Amino acid sequence: MNRLIKQALINDPQSPFNGKTVDILIQNGVIHEIGDSISAENCEVLDFAQATVSPGWVDIFTHLADPGLEHKETIATGLKAAAAGGYTGVMCIPNTNPVIDNKTQIEYLLHQSSSAVSTIFPIGAVSKKAAGQDLAEMHDMKNSGAVAFSDGTHPIQSSGILVKALQYVKAFDGVIIQIPDDTSLGGHGQMHEGLVSTQLGMPGKPMLAEELIVARDIKLARYAESKIHFTGVTSPKSLEYIRRAKESGAQVTCSVTPHHLFFTDKDLWEYDSNLKVYPPLRTEKEVSALKAAVLDGTVDSFATHHLPHEIDSKMVEFEYAGFGIIGLQTSYSVLQTVLEDLPNSKWTELLSINPRKIFGLPAASITIGANADLTIYKSNDYQIFTSAAIHSKSKNTPFLNRNLKGKVLGIINGSKLHLN
Amino acid sequence: MKLSTKHLLGIRDLTKEDIQIILDTATQFKEVLQRPVKKVPSLRDVTIVNLFFENSTRTRISFELAEKRLSADTISFTASNSSVKKGETLLDTVNNILSMKVDMVVMRHSATGAPHFLSKHIPAAIVNAGDGINEHPTQGLLDALSMREKFGTLEGLRVAIIGDIMHSRVAMSNMYLLKKMGAEVMLAGPPTLIPKYTAEAFGVKVEYNVKKALEWADVANVLRIQLERQNQVLFSSLREYNQVYGISRSLLESLGKDITIMHPGPINRGVELDSDVADSGQSIILQQVENGVAVRMAVLYLLAGRDSN
């Protein structure tokens, strides 16, 4: 099937057509021609009226919950949500049941996702069963298609294990991903430790727990001369450590989530379990610092931390509710709503170029001869996100019925197409 | 007289006027409790369920007595939180009970925010009888009533709250209430049991030396060491706790003034409070218990909304 995208604005700093409004002709999944006005026969014409096209976005931290937790999400529903959210690629975390800690599991993910529009890029566990004790067969998983390694929502606590893992993955230029959290501090915490948690009588997680691990892991990565990526960073001090580490040449990168840029701990005043996330929502001060770090380039990428939970896991007492929210479909709109000052080219860097570079994924660019790997969106349209629009199997989101800026129209991944 | 709220989830949600209304109503009910016939028909035909998902003796008995004195029909339900966690959800449990036409729910629960969660999903009025480490509003109110009786007003009163602030919903409700009513509050105890942000969050003073706190105070509200609620070791031993933070007769005598001693119970004698202090003339601990019934009658009566008839 051939496709012709009419009059779309190209947002791709890697492309000679960047900033131009052009037609794009795709033949057999490859960009065949780019020009002011292309006419072609026997092709599907896609005319979105003033849409922007960028190289396909990648989410770097999604929980697909499959295998084992299919009541929360399946690979099919999760990837559908990803496509609707503009993501042509999804890095999925290994906290399934069983844990993705061997090549058979990696092959299962790749096989199960082969018919989906979005591509799956599995993250293998660093340790067996993500238990933080013995190293998993990372080399084997790498050869089977794992793109990075992490114990996901159970960050590695032991310095000894982490340094071995960092050294181990160097053999194949691998990257370790950590949610920075020292679980011995505020391990029972339900939210950010501060004035609001104190007034709500809620056990808190101190920001210190994040900062200590960021500082420690930077040292370990330096010692091992290896690559580490922090995801879900929330603390200005963590950002400062990361900024300095980058300046001194350490191989450190980081990502932030959309919800940490949108909500603060004050939003938990009514004990809404859909705002119970890990790491916790911080205060306005941290939100401003995070936004500034996105603008100044300290932050390399966004990560949705899409964590589906069935209704019974959230319709309970706050303390018993699961951590996490779904985010694939709302990610872009939330970011566009809170980051109005982010220049056009930065969007493509943060959503596509950087994550692909950091994790060694196939590059995507809007140039003739490249694979068609595209996200189509409108940055100035508003839309109200409704329950009916959710493709995910779970509906645990605090963004329902909110008017958000920015709208994803669809994605093209090779010869596959998803339109919202 | 009407409260600004449909439920009593915490002192946090009450206005100063609400607190005054409750204390005034409690004073009237206290007078009823001195009569030979201690029962009034105020809540006839009102059915109240007491849901205690966490162990309680005195609070449950106090609520049950308050309900019976008001002629309400009552049922009580006690379950360990673990069985609830494993089996039926809280919402299912409560909806099952409500389908048998229950008007009000009194609930104690080990999770912070449990009554707030319930209030969003059920139509009945809810009285929080303690949630996690959050609030125990009727305890805050009965403490206030006891102090008001003794001192006439809460305005300007100096109250030291001593002990395990971190795990104490009594401390939370007391801080909210006392600050709203114009009292001054000082917390004292081991630094590991006083959360980092409490002073700023509530506008209270913090002192790690109990003697200094007592020298400052008109009243000392001594908290129970909540051994059952501690997730990690926060002090070395009960022996050391008693030596450094326990209230002894000799400590009180060294102050050179008489201060009033309160305790929400049950007392760990020889830990936070020595027997010769707990049983002394300075202690109003048993008045607190007596006031508990009157305060709970007032709360139930006001929330039932029958006073306009």
Description:
The complex is a heterodimer of chains A (420) and B (309). With 420 residues, chain A is α/β, with parallel strands linked by helices. Chain A has two domains: 102 residues, Urease, subunit C, domain 1 (Roll); 304 residues, TIM Barrel. Chain A has twelve helices and 18 strands. In chain A, the strands form four sheets. In chain A, strands 1, 2, 3, 4, 5, 16, 17 and 18 form an eight-stranded mixed β-sheet that branches. Chain A has a four-stranded parallel β-sheet with strand order 6-7-8-9. In chain A, helix 2 packs parallel to helix 3, helix 4 packs across helix 6 and helix 6 runs parallel beside helix 7. With 309 residues, chain B is an alpha/beta fold. Chain B is built from 13 helices and nine strands. The N and C termini of chain B lie close together (12 Å). Chains A and B meet through helix 5 of A and helix 5 and helix 8 of B.
CATH superfamily of the largest domain in chain B, called what? Aspartate/ornithine carbamoyltransferase
The total strand number of chain B stands at 9
CATH architecture of the largest domain in chain A: Alpha-Beta Barrel
What class would the helix/strand composition of chain B place it in? alpha/beta
User: In what range is the share of β-strand residues of chain B?
Assistant: 5-15%
**How many β-strands of chain A, per DSSP?**
18
What pattern of helices and strands is seen along the backbone of chain B?
HEHEHHEHEHEHEHEHEHHEHH
- The named CATH superfamily of the largest domain in chain A: Metal-dependent hydrolases
- Overall mean confidence score, pLDDT of chain A: 97
Strands of the biggest beta sheet of chain B: in what spatial order?
Answer: 7-6-5-8-9
Instruction: Give the CATH level 1 class of the largest domain in chain B.
Output: Alpha Beta
Radius of gyration of chain B: 19 Å
* Share of residues in strands of chain A: 15-25%
